[in-house]
Amino acid sequence: MQTILNRKMTRQLNRKLHHDGFKTGFFASLRHRLNWQAELQNDRADAQNLPLIKRYLHAASIGWWTQKIVIALVILLTMQLCISLPQMAQAHADYQVYEYQVTYAKAHHDTQLLNTTLKRGPQVAWYLKYGHLTKAEYLQKIGAVNQ
Prior knowledge:
By secondary structure, the chain is mostly helical. It has 5 helices and no strands.
């Protein structure tokens, strides 16, 4: 607040001196002295705020590193998702075909087709829907005929 008042007073004095035409002599040295004191006070105020500025810069640098780490993690997770999504879609499609063949074989009482489908069917099929069961329990659940 004191700095603002000093600046205001200095400006007013400079205007008055300029208006009155006193650019040399006592008033010029007075104006120079007032300007010098105002600059000195501004420098002191800046020096007092220096630790605060350093803290902000340090916090900003921590934020910058945190931001870079988060961006890297998001990129890695996105890449992993892009790689695994097609595999999951293919496994789901394989499972649907597998389930259709089993259902068709059961509906037509075709034991040979059912056994062939179960033997060559995708290994992941029973994990997708019945992951908590063993393979033998899964085959029993879907009614597979063992010959």
